[in-house]
Amino acid sequence: MSVAQSFLLLCSLLIFSLSPITAQTSLRPKALVLRVAKDTATLQYVTQIKQRTPLVPVKLTVHLGGNILWVDCEKGYVSSTNKTARCGSAQCNLANAKACGGGICGAGPDNPISNTGTHGDIRIDVLSIQSTDGRNPGRAVTVPNFIFLCGSEFVLQGLASGVVGIAGLGRSKVALPSQLAAAFSLKRKFALCLSPFDDGAIVFGDGPYYDLNNFDVSKNLKYTPLFINKVNTASGFLGEPSVEYFIGVTSVHVNGKAVPLNKTLLSIDNEGVGGTKISTVNPYTVLETSIYKALVQAFASAMPKVARVAPVAPFGACFRLQDIGFTRIGPVVPQIDLVLQNKNVVWTIHGQNSMVQIGGDALCLGFVDGGVNPRTSIVIGARQLENYLLQFDLATSRLGFSDSLLFERATCTFNFTSIA
Ligand SMILES: *[C@@H]1O[C@H](CO)[C@@H](O)[C@H](O)[C@H]1NC(C)=O
Ligand SMILES: *[C@@H]1O[C@H](CO)[C@@H](O)[C@H](O)[C@H]1NC(C)=O
Ligand SMILES: *[C@@H]1O[C@H](CO)[C@@H](O)[C@H](O)[C@H]1NC(C)=O
């Protein structure tokens, strides 16, 4: 046998021995996708998964800072594959569920809208979610032993119509990102792309993620560290670190000029107070009162020719619509920059995301006054996230974020035609 012949033989052996592995890995989804719709009545972002046996669709409000998926088990929960979690079991430990009743561990399902909570059992059941190739949803895949929490009907108070629980995306071991990454050996990353309509998405796993116009929305990301707030005071989780996503805003600029503010408020103190977090359950960005007032002052004086009109709640600063021009990226107003770890890493908020039109004549600054001594000084709300791609990397504890996708003639609008 010549050298060339033995080389060919070696190659074909390699191909034969490799192909079964390739076949196996191709069964593993590359990423998973949830469709996200904005509920216009409540301004919540709602998604749907399938759960139980037989599988039924379950509508959930998306809570970026939620520590677990919980559903109302009081009404309509029927499943032949339901299992409870015994106190001290691996599932209870993973869920950090220390309470024990009747041999079953439990925790407090938390409703961040009405701030109600109660005690509920940890349960385990089948969960089903669609895979994606980054463009279209593909076949559904199932997690046979998905850990979740049972809520009660009264905890649903304030949630959007048809919603039966909360989809927690926080950085706990039992929130959706961690459980799905573990079940399918995905990268511990997920992307959030909120749309003002019904075709936004959450993608678990790595990109690229293509929008309806075939634009890879993860193409131009900037990165900033994610911080852990060591103190969590959400009901039922006292004394544990927060599972919410904090970033390090170091200053706020309006049209490139620093807004004078008390820098102490921008860092998290020993009691867990202060700093900046991202939220999908606050419809608008909430600012500690002195920051709010300074921003409004800077914003209004940066457009002296625009008349102020009577404010419309929940907003405190509204302007005459007729005085403001519009472009493809929304109203022409001063640019608001959240400056992060250095002056080159800036989260910019343009008119489309900073302004909210009320009726026919008012354009309001879409930020709200959070009063004195709020727990968190800056809570970046959902309206300010629309049509931006945010990628949360849990493994490296960093956030990738795009500028407004509208600049690229792209949006958080995805193709939900299944190619399964
Ligand atoms: C839980 O599963 C058991 C065993 O299949 C079944 O008997 C019971 O009815 C189920 N409970 C619910 C609430 O579906
Ligand atoms: C800045 O904020 C901190 C924290 O709320 C407060 O203790 C301090 O008095 C403030 N400083 C000024 C100058 O207002
Ligand atoms: C959505 O995806 C389907 C399947 O690939 C394709 O046939 C369809 O043209 C796409 N829709 C748009 C608007 O691009």
From TrEMBL:
<feature type="signal peptide">
    <location>
        <begin position="1"/>
        <end position="23"/>
    </location>
</feature>
<dbReference type="InterPro" id="IPR001461">
    <property type="entry name" value="Aspartic_peptidase_A1"/>
</dbReference>
<dbReference type="InterPro" id="IPR033868">
    <property type="entry name" value="Xylanase_inhibitor_I-like"/>
</dbReference>
<dbReference type="InterPro" id="IPR032799">
    <property type="entry name" value="TAXi_C"/>
</dbReference>
<dbReference type="Pfam" id="PF14541">
    <property type="entry name" value="TAXi_C"/>
</dbReference>
<protein>
    <recommendedName>
        <fullName>Peptidase A1 domain-containing protein</fullName>
    </recommendedName>
</protein>
<comment type="similarity">
    <text>Belongs to the peptidase A1 family.</text>
</comment>
<dbReference type="InterPro" id="IPR021109">
    <property type="entry name" value="Peptidase_aspartic_dom_sf"/>
</dbReference>
<keyword id="KW-0964">Secreted</keyword>
<dbReference type="GO" id="GO:0005576">
    <property type="term" value="C:extracellular region"/>
</dbReference>
<dbReference type="InterPro" id="IPR033121">
    <property type="entry name" value="PEPTIDASE_A1"/>
</dbReference>
<dbReference type="GO" id="GO:0004190">
    <property type="term" value="F:aspartic-type endopeptidase activity"/>
</dbReference>
<keyword id="KW-0732">Signal</keyword>
<dbReference type="GO" id="GO:0006508">
    <property type="term" value="P:proteolysis"/>
</dbReference>
<dbReference type="InterPro" id="IPR032861">
    <property type="entry name" value="TAXi_N"/>
</dbReference>
<dbReference type="Pfam" id="PF14543">
    <property type="entry name" value="TAXi_N"/>
</dbReference>
<feature type="domain" description="Peptidase A1">
    <location>
        <begin position="45"/>
        <end position="402"/>
    </location>
</feature>
